[in-house]
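Question (not urgent): is this output format expected?
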Amino acid sequence: MAVLINDTWENPLLNLAEEAWQFVNPTELVSQNDTVLLEQAYNHCETLTAYHSRSFHLASALMKPEERRSVRALYAFCRTADDIVDESGVDAPNLLETWRERSLSSQPPKHDLIAVAWADTRTKHRVPRKYAEQLIDGVARDLYQTRYESFEDLSTYCYGVASTVGLMSMHITGFESQQAIRYAIKLGVALQLTNILRDVAEDWERGRLYLPLDELADHGLTQADIAAGEEKKEYDDRWREFMKFQIARARHIYDEAWPGISLIHPQGRFSIAAAASFYRQILDDIEANDYDVFSRRAHVGKWGKLRRLPMIWWQTKRAN
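Got this back:
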């Protein structure tokens, strides 16, 4: 399906990323010297990652031990912010601000194992603080915005909650040049779009709709159609055509992000490529089930992921 390419959303996100790039303050970063505490902290992050994200846990397992521990600390930092927003009710704004202060402290309280591991990771890999702040700001957007008028507006949200993760991951895996920023932004947007398309019903139950309203209207759809899909599991060809359009765009952005793999240091390429491939397969599963995201949650089984690893490995070698 042909996709109308409109890249006007990219430059504002690139400006955000380049601004944040400057915010590394060496005097703020203090590594934790308590090796026993750090071991406990990183082990806790590993357990949390394994429980909440089998795809990320498997992809990160392809990294060397130091980078693997660090990206799982990054995942735990992000997951904590997300859970605060989704599960804390009216207390969420205050709790999120507390987490912002604690997680961005160079010396967090020792009882907060995730904050301890994340502080150590930020120090070792010189992760710009501003990227972490942008992620928390992105997650906080769910507290006051539940609808998005256009893809340009939605892309800013995707940057905050997903592209920032890729930008922080770059500092953990290592990268060849600042040119990698643009590709990390694209991959984050593609990954978050995949999440959005998979989780339409779940998000609707929470009172949120991330699908661009103008594009729904272009396909003759309204929010009442989303409600009917979630409540009655009913949808028609208008929905199928809308989803075809969204999936085609997501794939296009994945394709545009792929050249950035070659800009990641070799030890991180396989893992990043695997994570992207696992998520991209979710789009295939949505298609295979006639675009039904209302009665089932699209997923890719462990065997489906494992059998793709040799091909992903070969692709990353060719990216050298």
